[in-house]
Each structure stands twice: as structure tokens, then as C-alpha cells.
Amino acid sequence: MEPAATLRDFSISFWIPTAVLGIALVIKLPTIIRLWRDPLLRAVGGLLLLACAVFVFCSPSTIARVNRLTGVSNISAPWCYSLLTAFCGSCLLLIITWRNGPDRSAVTRRARRWVLSVYSGVIGVLWLLFLLADVPVERLRDLDTYYATTPFMREEILLYLGAHALACLITARLLWNWVRAEGLDAWLRWGLMLLGAGYVLNLIFDAAKLAAVGARWVGGDLDWLSTDLAPPVAALSAILIAVGFILPHAGQYASDRWRVRLAHRELRPLYLLMRASAGEGVPRVLRATPELRLTRRETFIRDVLLPLARHLDTALGARAYEAALSLGHPPERARALASAVTILDAVEAKARMPEPPATVTAPDTTDLLQEIGPVSRALRRPDEIAAVRARAAADPAESVAAHE
């Protein structure tokens, strides 16, 4: 089987990377609009928008439509080359802004002006060369190789490929240096790695195009590199770049949501105990964000613990802590188990005597209110609590002797 036929069977539709890039742009768009003054967000938005435009206008169906609407044969060529060149410039502007942050030094401003002037000049030369070239035959898929030896069009093809390769090489190198830096968030590191892989694939795209064009110069025929290999490589590159932009944002969002849901679930045992102690119905809210549900659960637990504090037995808490240590629990776990024992005892004491004597002073509950998470996790192990409670109920002297 010929390589060209194999690649056609596994080609990636131009609209798949367009959809993925569009999703990335939609995800980023609210933040870009809200923080429009941030040059980094503007650079990300511009790059994603240009990347979408490249795949929309470089699809064969759109190329044919643009040629028909303008009445100029192959006018889509300089238009697509211009979009690709603008995308290259956006890559470099993004890296300059991303690496330097809000730095407004003369070096940063000079680098941005250099990128804008060079790539704007390249776009202007592309259109000039197209006007000078003679390209009467419309080519939807193989224009680069069909006109590889045509005066002026030959130079135009080399110019856009060279500008694209230079930008991708610089961008990939800077991204690789950044990935190796210390202190990066895991999601950002993975996003940078995907971006770097995407720009490396762009270099493979350029190499395939240049090899096919070079073969035409020496009388060979490697057109399949340009028509069958380069498009799916470019599509896969776009997908990796889009996911690279999405991943840090989506990954951090998913991590935060998971932590909130986990914290909400961990508080369930203590929450149910406090509901039983409160002895009254708790209103349910059907629609609420995970963060709001967690806040409500924490607030309810603390609101019930405050009046319950008058029933807490601090002496029992000290004995329970010593008992937990004697059973081999580490100090942090021992404190949580001791607090769970005292809360269970307080709930039972409240059931026997709802109002303690007026002379009873509530102990300081600052630490307890801050450690409701570990206490709730301890309540999930009733066997451990029962063991600590039994040891603490023994004679205090025996508990201390056992610990020693």
C-alpha cells in the first residue's frame, strides 16, 4: 500500500481541530472579556482566534468558495498564508508576554515591536509576490507543489514556510525551557508540554512541505508529503495546542471542585450527628453550588457545636487523648479521636439533661471548631472510637500507666 493512500485513510478532518480550538476559545472568552487589559489574555485570545481562522479558511471547501466569491484564481493562497503568518507572530507575542508577565521594560517593548514589524512585513511581501506571480490554474489541495517552480510563487511558498518554521522553533524552545523550571503547577506543566508537542508537530508540517517542494525543484515527486502527511500533522498539532491551553484552566477547576466535594463528603458523619443533636429539621436547598453546600454544612456544624460546648467534658477529652496515644495512634489522629469521643459524650449528656447547671462554664472550642474535618473523618471509624472510649472510661491512673 502506498504511503499516500494510507495517510488518506487516517486523515483528520479540518473541522475537528477547528471545533477543539473553538471550545478552547469559548472557555477562555469570559476571562478575556472580563480582564481585557491583561496583555497575556489578549495574546491567548488572538492566537486561538487566528488558529481557528487558519483551519476554517484552509479547508478545501472554503478555499474554493473564497476563490469563487472574489473571482480571482487561487487568491485563497496569500490569504491562508497571511493567516498562518499572523498565527506565527501571535505565538511569539504570547511567549514574550507569558514569560515576561506585566514587564514593560524597553527590552520587552522592543521584542514585541520587532515581532509585529517583521511578521507584518512578511504578510505584505506575501501579497506582493502573489500579485507578481502567474497562477491561473486553481489548486485546492496541492498548490504548494503545483507552483513550486513558478517565479514569485516559489518565493512566496518559501517565505511563509520559513516564517512559520522560525516562529515554531523559537516557541517550542522557549516552552521546553519553561517546562524544566521549578515550582510550576502540575496542570500548567502538562499544558506547556502539550503546547510544546504541538509546536514540534508544526515543525514536522514545515519539514514535510519543504521536502515536497524541494523534490519538485530537482524533478522528483514527493507531493504526498504536502497533500497527505502535512494536513493531518497540522490538525493534530492544533488539537494539542488547544488542549494545552484548556488543560491548566480545566484541570485546576476540576481539582478545586473535587476538593470541595471531598470536603463536603468528609463532613457527613459529623453533620448527621449534629442534626440528630439539634433535634430539628434542616431545610434542603435543591439548587446550590458545591462551594455553597460545603459552606452551609460547615456553618450548620459550628452553629450546633457552640451551644453543645456546655456539655463537653474536658477531663474526658484529656483522658481520651492519652488513651488514643496508648493505642498507638499518632498525635494528630489521637486529637481527632479524643474530640470525637467528647462530642459523642456531649450529645448523650445533652439528651439526658438539655440544660446544664448555670454554674457550668463552656470550655474554649476554638480548636474544635477549626478541626471539624479530622473529627468527622474519625467518626467514620466507630471501632477505633469505641476502643478509645473504653480505655478513657477506665481509671485515669490506669490510663496514664498504660501510656507510660
Automatic annotation (TrEMBL):
**Cross-referenced InterPro entries, in alphabetical order?**
DUF6545, MAB_1171c-like
Tagged with keyword Phosphoprotein: no
**Residue intervals passing through the bilayer:** 12-33, 40-63, 75-96, 116-137, 157-176, 188-212, 232-251
Q: Tell me, what's a Pfam family for it?
A: DUF6545
Entry keyword Transmembrane: yes
Give the keywords, sorted.
Membrane, Transmembrane, Transmembrane helix
Q: Where is the DUF6545 domain?
A: 257-372
Recorded protein name is: DUF6545 domain-containing protein
